[in-house]
Write a structure and sequence with these properties.
Elements (H helix, E strand, L loop, with lengths): L6 H19 L6 H8 L3 H7 L3 H24 L4 H11 L5 H19 L1 H27 L10 H21 L6 H16 L1
Helix pairs in contact: 1-2, 1-4, 4-5, 4-7, 5-7, 5-9, 6-7, 7-8, 8-9
């Protein structure tokens, strides 16, 4: 009797293996051979499920973003404005082991996206979703009278906050002796407090 293969499960295993290789060894080390070995499959199995290495990498990134969105949806349920914005921004900082791995994965894609238009397009689309969410929550906060300064455009505030999250995240990964997770949370909350004034 032939073995029944769960194709979706196998795809998930390959994407999970790709994430592990990227986070542990860097994106340049995430060759199809290394991913196949990590997943316990042959290169031929990968070729059956993915067209090429970039498709594996993009699938791993998208799956990571889907997990983040699902987690965040639970955190912001029933809250809006600045309370929801605070949760969204804190969730995008590497404040625990899971989010540190997600951040390492994300940052690994940045340099590769500069050299691959296909990866860059996905990166831009995913970043646009996050920016839209931040912009929307800032709009809610302004409508509720939670923002102190009406002179700043919501677009500028969104860019500022996203740049702060990216910068703090990168600094924690690069300079762990200089910054701690407690520092990151404190600095982000301080920036949000300034918006209230």
């Amino acid at each position: 009797m032939p073995k029944i293969v769960d194709h979706e499960e196998r795809r998930r295993e390959v994407m999970s293996a790709a994430r592990r290789v990227i986070v542990r060894d860097g994106i340049d080390a995430a060759t199809t051979r290394a991913i196949a070995k990590e997943a316990g499959y042959s290169n031929g199995v990968l070729a059956h499920y993915f067209a090429d290495k970039d498709e594996i990498l993009l699938s791993a990134l998208r799956e990571s973003h889907e997990r983040i969105r699902a987690r965040l949806t639970g955190k912001v349920e029933g809250v809006s404005g600045l309370a929801a914005l605070r949760e969204l921004l804190l969730d995008n900082l590497p404040l625990d082991a899971e989010r540190t791995q997600e951040t390492r994965l994300e940052v690994s894609f940045w340099s590769r996206s500069l050299a691959s238009e296909r990866l860059a397009e996905v990166q831009r689309a995913e970043a646009a979703d996050l920016r839209a969410a931040v912009r929307h929550l800032l709009g809610q906060a302004r409508a509720a009278g939670e923002l102190g300064n009406d002179d700043d455009s919501l677009d500028d505030l969104a860019e500022h906050l996203l740049a702060l999250v990216d910068g703090l995240s990168l600094h924690l990964l690069l300079y762990p002796d200089r910054l701690t997770r407690v520092d990151l949370e404190r600095l982000l909350l301080k920036a949000l407090d300034r918006l209230l004034r």
